[in-house]
Amino acid sequence: MATAAAGALGLLWGWLWSERFWLPQNVSWADLEGPGDGYGYPRARHILSVFPLAAGVFSVRLLFERFIAKPCALHVGIQDSGPYQPQPNAILEKVFISITKYPDEKRLEGLSKQLDWDVRKIQCWFRHRRNQDKPPTLTKFCESMWRFTFYLCIFCYGIRFLWSDFLIMFVHHLATIGLITFSYINNMVRVGTLVMCLHDASDFLLEAAKLANYAKYQRLCDTLFVIFSAVFMVTRLGIYPFWFCMSSGPT
């Protein structure tokens, strides 16, 4: 029984990691082990470095938003003030938390009789209470400024280290964590890096447009959004399908 179970498990494992399904022709899993000259190919254990790297990036983001983005927001006139605080009311707060944040007309009338408030006042209370949970404009400005800076730096970094491959650098694909991990483990680093670099080509423009919008610079916001739209369409609807996908193949 144990031998039969082990044999069935072996067949399942072999089918799951079939070289015919996962790898190009004339490539085997042994080819991905790396040459014997000491040069190592990517390994699954390398993914562990993502965790300290993520912690470091998060720390840099906190410092950036506090000491750079926030002063910039205040400089352009964005106020450091939270949303309007509604009048404290235990009954309405209980309804908001436990029952609904959007009371219907029947419930509004019942609350009006219970509290001796008019319906309009209760509606305003719920609206202000909902807005209280939303991030203020200052927070959104700092977040967008961080994204703008991050995407721009990553894009410039990609250009710096992929300059010899400039003709095929601008590629795009929506890379999920699973695809990034699998492509790295299977030594598809070059293709994955190119795809992510193309994705970053337009992201920082969108965040710059958001910064201008939060600062009430509408003309600058419109201009940046038009540029973002143009770059987005050229890179994702032009370069990626007609240049990269048609020219790429097994190497």
TrEMBL record:
Keyword Transmembrane helix appears in the UniProt entry: yes
GO molecular function: DNA binding; sphingosine N-acyltransferase activity
Matching CDD domains: homeodomain
Membrane topology, from the record: Multi-pass membrane protein
Every Homeobox domain range: 92-136
UniProt catalytic activity: sphinganine + octadecanoyl-CoA = N-(octadecanoyl)-sphinganine + CoA + H(+); sphing-4-enine + octadecanoyl-CoA = N-octadecanoylsphing-4-enine + CoA + H(+); eicosanoyl-CoA + sphinganine = N-eicosanoylsphinganine + CoA + H(+); tetracosanoyl-CoA + sphinganine = N-tetracosanoylsphinganine + CoA + H(+)
Transmembrane segments: 46-64, 144-163, 169-186, 224-243
GO cellular-component term (any): nucleus
Top-level taxon in the UniProt lineage: Eukaryota
Pathway connected to this protein: Sphingolipid metabolism; Lipid metabolism; sphingolipid metabolism
Subcellular location field: Endoplasmic reticulum membrane; Nucleus
Pfam family for this entry, one: TRAM_LAG1_CLN8
Listed EC numbers: 2.3.1.24
InterPro entries: HD, Homeodomain-like_sf, Lag1/Lac1-like, TLC-dom
Enzyme class, UniProt record, top EC level: transferase
Coiled coil: none
Record-annotated DNA-binding residue ranges: 94-137
PANTHER family named in the record: CERAMIDE SYNTHASE 5, LONGEVITY ASSURANCE FACTOR 1 LAG1
Protein name (database record): sphingosine N-acyltransferase
Organism: Pipistrellus kuhlii (Kuhl's pipistrelle)
